[in-house]
Amino acid sequence: MTGRAFALLGPTASGKSHLALALAERLSVEIVSMDSAQVYRGLDIGTAKPSAAQRAAVPHHLLDVIDPDRSYSTGRWRADAISVVREILGRGKVPLIVGGTMLYYRALAGGLDVLPQADAEVRSAIDAEAAERGWPALHAELSRVDPQSARRIAPGDTQRIQRALEVWRLTGKPLSTLQGMARAALPFSLKAFALVPAERELLHGRIAARFDAMLKAGLVEELKGLRERYRLTPGMPSMRAVGYRQVWQFLDGELGEAAMREQAIAATRQLAKRQLTWLRSFRDLEAVPDDAAQLLPRLR
Fold it and tell me: What is the pLDDT of residues 261-293, one digit of tens each?
């Protein structure tokens, strides 16, 4: 099957979802979520997941895919997204992929690296070593076995250090040599747009206001309920999501309420900064304003 899908990327709180819904009022659009936290059931408030009314008005896909005590890989998202887009095209509708998980977009557009699946035993062993020796020591180990990856990965980026060491221990090969070895082509064409706020301070203000709204809407209570319903740990991918990580620390008494709010907002700003860096690295994006009427003619 051939056809064209569109992607709308941007940093957190940039207005992607609002713009996508505005486009859906004018086009026969179905939205495909490209958000690595919205795939988890129950993570609603802290991920700014579309409301029930919004989902009733416009079909949304790849939300609530898996329970938060499970893992969901980039490879699985890519396969799921391709399947969903093909179904949407088969219905004669317009697939609009929307989100800020830049790794998902890179995997979708450029193909997926041939890498081993996550291994729970290996990850647990790495976590135990980190608890005993500290992540800087594991980063130093990575420098010895895969210096190219170590140069790219910050000493404090625990998730990527863990993954690089996991790949080394599973394959005996550096992550840097495996990345980009083989990539599968998309069965449809893809045109992507970037929604980039003109003023960084405006984005920062939106981030703070949105987190305050999440707290008011019951984010703390949401996480309390999730911890009662599932066997969660702070190291799980779902609980590493910005906002949930800081609220977890608050519930455990590691942070006061004010510090939790401050650190969550700061972490979200850092996330937005990383997302903007990713956007600058993609050469196939077309910058667009937050205006559905102006974007509409480009969805052809």
Answer: 999 999 999 999 999 999 999 988 999 888 777
What would the pLDDT profile of 143-187 be if each residue is shown by its tens digit?
999 999 999 999 999 999 999 999 888 888 888 887 765 556 799
Residue written as token pair 């290996």: 122
Both tokens assigned to 248: 């977890």
The SS3 assignment for 61 reads: strand
User: Residue 264: which CATH number?
Assistant: 1.10.287.890
Q: Domain containing 61: what range?
A: 4-113+184-198+276-298
68, 226 contact by CB (below 8 A): yes
In the block, residue with structure tokens 């938060």: 68
The answer to whether 46 and 240 are in contact (CB under 8 A) is no
Contact 10/275 with Cβ under 8 angstroms? yes
Tell me whether residue 117 is exposed, middle or buried, using C-beta atoms within 10 angstroms of its C-beta: 0 to 12, 13 to 18, 19 or more.
Answer: exposed
Give the CATH number, domain containing residue 169: 1.10.20.140
Reported residue count of the chain is 300
